[in-house]
Design goal:
six-stranded antiparallel β-sheet, 11 strands, mainly beta, globular, 114 residues, single chain, Jelly Rolls
Amino acid sequence: MDANGKRPWGYFEVLSDAADHKVKRIVVSPGECLSLQRHRKRAEHWYAVSGEGAATVDGKVVPLARGRAVDIPQGASHRLENTSSADLVIIEVQTGTYFGEDDIERLEDRYGRV
């Protein structure tokens, strides 16, 4: 798949892709959620730009709304969910040693992806 991607939950666009980081703008449609997943080679920082939702990090639910942020440590299970009737827009900053989409280990996915 190309660097920018449409997904069942919405879409993302890559804003920066360098050797030491990647930055994405993630848009989650109302009522949708990303898979419960983890990464072996990167940590993530999610900053909410607009909308409302929840991040689940190692079982702890963190409410997200404009101006709120959450850190996802490398190896932590995590999920992002839109709990509102408007798009949830997140800026995601990845740091680590590898940023490929194949570093996603899906633990649970409502869309049947593995």
